[in-house]
Write a structure and sequence with these properties.
Blueprint lengths: L44 E5 L11 E4 L11 E3 L4 E8 L8 E8 L2 E8 L1 E2 L6 E2 L4 E4 L14 E7 L8 E2 L2 E2 L2 E2 L4 E5 L13 H5 L4 E8 L3 E8 L4 E8 L7 E9 L5 E7 L2 E8 L5 E7 L2 E4 L7
Antiparallel strand pairs: 1-2, 1-14, 2-10, 3-9, 4-5, 4-8, 5-6, 6-10, 7-9, 10-11, 12-13, 15-16, 16-17, 17-20, 18-19, 18-21, 21-22
Length: about 300
């Protein structure tokens, strides 16, 4: 089918682990990067440093604010993006993370929040962007006497540690390594969807049709002339960053329908199928609005 802060670097702690300080290359995750925000409440300003700790492998960040080493002890830590908590535990003697929370954001993306004084969520819990998950602390393995700070990491699942540690991106802007003072825009969700249909479907796909789903979203039909595949994705316009019922489907004439349906923060899909010289039926749902096409875009 065709056309179709403010603590100085000297206060950043040394964890005392025998790790290399070599910079890890960036990796490519299985899916688009989530729209990560700062792991602190809206409007707060924090100074991050990636170079003042001997434990750092590459793009980890230690965050502090305040005029003294313990000024931020007990400050709120929030989820950088919506997801599912896969670890909420004290790591004991295993490593230097102390109280650690790890969140799975889907698509092969994970965030880590370490040294917390307390954890507010349990493993298996679903969290929304900006939801409190813990408080800044100085927990570590026995014998590590560290100053309070948040150790933050972004990792992907497509390669082994430490090459899977990624540069942190907040509100669409890459953190200014090795150190930067940043104000949180983690203010209850994005006002516009940070993704595009082409980004979700992948390289080579172009939009050939679309249908509005009221004010809740738009469902798009794309085609890749290089491989003869169609792709359908439903992009949300409201409740961005909050998991709500969203659906995308694609049916090639003579074949079974392929559907992606679930509670998603930004989009449903991508749903792909080989459709060169075939008619397709496509559609989706966002909120209470549904679109179902006839068989079309044949040839």
């Amino acid at each position: 089918m065709r056309l179709k802060s403010l603590v100085t670097a000297g206060l950043a702690v040394v964890l005392g682990l025998a790790f290399s300080t070599a910079t890890a290359p960036a990796a490519s995750a299985a899916g688009p990067r989530p729209n990560f925000q700062m792991p602190f409440p809206c409007g707060q300003t924090w100074t991050g440093n990636s170079s003042a700790s001997s434990a750092h492998q590459s793009y980890e960040i230690d965050f502090n604010r305040g005029s003294t080493a313990d000024a931020d002890y007990g400050d709120t830590v929030v989820a950088a993006a919506a997801g599912t908590v896969v670890i909420s535990a004290h790591q004991g003697s295993t490593n230097g993370f102390g109280n650690l929370i790890k969140i799975d954001h889907g698509g092969g993306w994970f965030t880590y929040y370490a040294h917390l004084s307390l954890r507010s969520v349990s493993a298996g819990a679903s969290v929304s962007q900006g939801q409190k998950i813990g408080e800044v602390g100085n927990t570590s393995k026995p014998g590590n006497n560290i100053s309070p700070h948040l150790h933050y990491e972004v990792r992907t699942s497509d390669t082994s540690y430490p090459a899977n540690i990624q540069k942190a991106v907040f509100n669409g802007v890459t953190f200014g390594y090795p150190a930067q003072t940043v104000t949180s825009q983690n203010c209850g969700g994005a006002s516009t969807n940070p993704y595009t249909p082409q980004e979700v479907c992948g390289s080579g796909y172009s939009v050939i049709d679309s249908a509005a789903l009221g004010t809740a979203g738009t469902v798009y039909l794309l085609y890749n002339s290089g491989n003869g595949y169609n792709c359908v994705v439903t992009m949300k316009k409201t409740s961005l960053g909050t998991a709500t019922a969203t659906t995308a489907y694609l049916e090639v004439q003579g074949k079974s329908r392929v559907t992606d349906s679930g509670n998603y923060g930004y989009y449903a899909g991508p749903v792909r199928a080989a459709a060169a010289d075939k008619c397709v039926k496509w559609g989706g749902k966002a909120g209470s609005n549904t679109y179902d096409s006839p068989f079309e875009h044949c040839g």
